[in-house]
């Protein structure tokens, strides 16, 4: 019996020692620099601790999961600086583990009752036993949760990990964690916007985009989309409206379509005749091809993106519902002002591979804006 007790205690202290090592290593990663990059070496003892932490064992303290998840994220970011960069498979594995740990940590922590608001790191989490031991009623449980600051830190970590994974189901969950928070930092608001857009929480995506409007982050989001044709322009969600219909679900989290052709037919024009001369000349009242080269249209969860080619390439980003897509975007004109465009698309049930919709282009001028509306036919090749 004594031997068994000693064995149990030895295992206990080994666990505590491992967690102490993990916390010390996390402090190094937080400081950054060359030392942090070396600390993030794949396969190190600390890496093995974080990757080997039990996921389905309720006896693993939520704080341990939280620490290990943050360690894996920071280690992942440091490894991106290494030459050569570790392979994609290992990076995905690290982030998958980080997500599972932080999800479990947050959800486990929400059911932990801390009678004195001070909990030992290694304390168990059986809610029924602790309720019975402390005689806390069900009505009091909500008042005896983990410290608010730690809870917020966990949801912030969940946001970043989910966005770096670019997995819509996890982004939806992370966005839900912070949906009721009104104190998100600009960094967290950016991640929340991305998570909500891809996760189908469209009203929250618009809300968080509006909070960033006019900021340097808002400008940076737009500039990134102008530089990288496959970068979603999250800034435009401040101008979006929630489309009709639910977000729906998709066979794969990420779909890469190929826009093979685009045909336009002018519906209407109004506004300054002078500023709209070029637009009027490009398309008559019959269907006309645009001569675009094949280019990608991306759909990740409940958001879609297409950089519309032309003399002024415009990144169009927006919502992807179960029945179609609603995109919008803008770009600066050489003459000054912004050209704004919106594009709505839905599959043509009678012609597989053809999508139909409407394109609206607005150009500025001293006499006032000119607006042209076009019917659209797009030949869109679905991913294999």
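Sequence proposed for the structure above (384 residues):
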């Amino acid at each position: 019996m004594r031997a068994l007790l000693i064995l149990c205690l030895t295992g206990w202290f080994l666990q505590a020692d491992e967690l102490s090592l993990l916390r010390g290593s996390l402090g190094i990663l937080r400081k950054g620099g060359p030392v942090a990059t070396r600390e993030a070496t794949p396969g190190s003892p600390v890496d093995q601790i974080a990757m080997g932490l039990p996921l389905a064992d309720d006896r693993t303290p939520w704080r341990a999961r939280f620490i290990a998840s943050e360690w894996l994220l920071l280690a992942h970011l440091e490894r991106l600086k290494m030459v050569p960069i570790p392979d994609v498979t290992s990076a995905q594995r690290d982030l998958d583990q980080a997500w599972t740990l932080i999800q479990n940590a947050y959800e486990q922590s929400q059911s932990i009752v801390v009678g004195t608001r001070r909990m030992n790191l290694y304390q168990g989490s059986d809610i029924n036993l602790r309720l019975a031991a402390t005689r806390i009623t069900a009505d009091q449980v909500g008042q005896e949760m983990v410290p608010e600051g730690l809870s917020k830190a966990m949801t912030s970590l969940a946001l970043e990990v989910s966005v770096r994974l670019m997995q819509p189901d996890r982004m939806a969950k992370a966005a839900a964690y912070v949906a009721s928070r009104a104190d998100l930092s600009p960094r967290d608001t950016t991640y929340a916007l991305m998570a909500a857009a891809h996760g189908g929480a469209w009203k929250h995506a618009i809300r968080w985009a509006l909070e960033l409007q006019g900021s340097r982050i808002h400008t940076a989001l737009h500039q990134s989309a102008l530089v990288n044709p496959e970068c979603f322009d999250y800034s435009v969600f401040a101008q979006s409206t929630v489309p009709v219909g639910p977000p729906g679900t998709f066979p794969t989290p990420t779909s890469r379509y190929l826009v093979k052709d685009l045909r336009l037919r002018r519906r209407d024009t109004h506004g300054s005749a002078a500023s709209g001369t070029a637009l009027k000349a490009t398309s008559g009242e019959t269907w006309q091809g645009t001569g675009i080269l094949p280019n990608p249209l991306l759909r990740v969860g409940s958001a879609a993106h297409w950089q519309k080619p032309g003399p002024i390439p415009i990144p169009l980003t927006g919502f992807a519902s179960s029945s179609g897509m609603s995109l919008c975007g803008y770009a600066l004109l050489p003459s000054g002002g912004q050209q704004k465009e919106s594009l709505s698309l839905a599959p043509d049930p009678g012609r597989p591979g053809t999508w139909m919709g409407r394109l609206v282009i607005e150009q500025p001028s001293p006499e006032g804006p000119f607006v042209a509306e076009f019917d659209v036919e797009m030949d869109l090749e679905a991913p294999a």
